[in-house]
Write a structure and sequence with these properties.
Shape: elongated
Order of helices and strands: HHHEEEHEEEHEHEEE
Distance between the termini: 69 Å
Strand order of the largest sheet: 4-5-6-9-8-7
CATH architecture of the largest domain: 3-Layer(aba) Sandwich
Number of domains: 2
Length: 244
């Protein structure tokens, strides 16, 4: 049974007990939680109370849902990246000496509807849209969405499941010659929520990017989203020595 303090809401008491079990490693990172039915029976509370407590712990970044499998304790590895690295190049990623992999989620033909891209003045018509999960050391870290203004059967689309767009374009006549980044905090997109098993409104570190090539008609637009507890960026700022 649950030992709640006098006047304490039951869902808060359940949340505290589950968090204590996570903190003390009774529930290890990567472990599946007992089912909501089992926890309700153990604590002597309703299923609604259990679900509210689990929802709170998801919002804190301690739990995640894997569709069809259940609720798991998050493995909170955090990676630090240089602020100018957008993970748009495999070479840049390999500089970190960490094994990296791409998982293709979907290919579609659709326009950019997120108004956050307006500062890049993207085309309004549909483009090839590539959605992928980027993993480091087998840990899903980032969700990448790229819009490329070419047909889906274009040759540069053949390798999008294994290569970044920058790497695909590098040996062609239209390599990337400039990259613009906008870094902000934003709620996870619906696609990122599904990929990471995070709730609506979960905060992410988002990097919008605009890649321009030698061909003015071929520009790539995209975003990379990472749950706030998965990735941080650092920057070195040289300061002139006044005594030099």
């Amino acid at each position: 049974m649950l030992n709640a303090r006098e006047g304490q809401p039951l869902n808060e008491a359940v949340r505290e007990e589950l968090q204590r079990r996570i903190d003390t490693k009774r529930y290890q990172p990567g472990d599946a939680l007992p089912s909501a039915v089992s926890l309700a029976e153990e604590f002597g509370v309703s299923l609604i109370t259990i679900k509210r407590a689990i929802k709170d712990l998801k919002a804190l970044g301690l739990l995640r849902t894997v569709q069809g499998l259940g609720v798991f304790v998050r493995q909170n590895k955090r990676f630090i990246r240089e602020i100018d690295v957008s993970m748009t190049s495999l070479e840049q990623a390999m500089d970190s000496k960490l094994p990296l992999s791409l998982t293709l989620i979907s290919l579609s033909w659709e326009p950019i509807t997120d108004r956050s891209f307006d500062l890049f003045s993207p085309p309004r018509g549909p483009m090839s849209c590539i959605r992928r999960v980027i993993s480091i050391s087998d840990e899903p870290i980032m969700f990448d969405t790229s819009y490329v203004p070419v047909p889906m059967d274009h040759p540069i689309m053949r390798d999008v499941s294994t290569k970044f767009i920058m790497d695909i374009l590098k040996p062609t006549k239209t390599p990337v010659i400039n990259k613009r980044l906008v870094i902000d905090a934003a709620p996870a997109s619906a696609e990122a929520q599904s990929a990471f098993g995070i709730p609506v409104g979960y905060p992410t570190l988002r990097r919008l990017y605009h890649l321009t090539t030698r061909d003015p008609a071929l520009s790539v637009f995209g975003s990379v989203e990472a749950p706030f507890d998965k990735l941080a960026c650092n920057i070195d700022i040289p300061i002139d020595d006044p005594a030099a």
